[in-house]
Amino acid sequence: MNRPFRENLDVECTAEGEWLRCSQCGHRLCAVGEDWQAAARRKAFSPIMAGPLMKVLEGRYRFEKLYCPACGVLLNAEMVEEKHES
To answer: Where are the domains of the chain?
Structure first.
């Protein structure tokens, strides 16, 4: 039995436990309660990839997308603050 977790992610309930998986291809990312983002494929872009008005964020933020490592479907997209060494 499966139930939705968020867009393009399902919770799969099996005899072995509950798993977060891609709802498009069924690839298991991790057990429920673990960090599914660590199992996803991560790509970072300039903020202007989200639109030209985001140019003011360049150098301070990056536009990060998380994908299913098996089929490439988009699982999450967000602006992430850049960490600069002092």
So the answer is: 2-81
Angle at 56 between CA 53 and CA 62, to 5 degrees: 95
Torsional sign, CA 13, 19, 73, 35: positive
By the 8 A CB rule, do 37 and 30 touch? no
User: What confidence score (pLDDT) does residue 1 get?
Assistant: 78
Cα separation of 27 and 41, whole Å? 12
Given pLDDT bands bounded at 50, 70 and 90, which one contains residue 53?
Answer: very high
Indicate the helix (H) or strand (E) that contains 45.
strand 41-45
From residue 40, alpha-carbon distances to 63, 67, 70 in Å are 16, 6, 9
Q: What is the CA radius of gyration of the chain?
A: 16
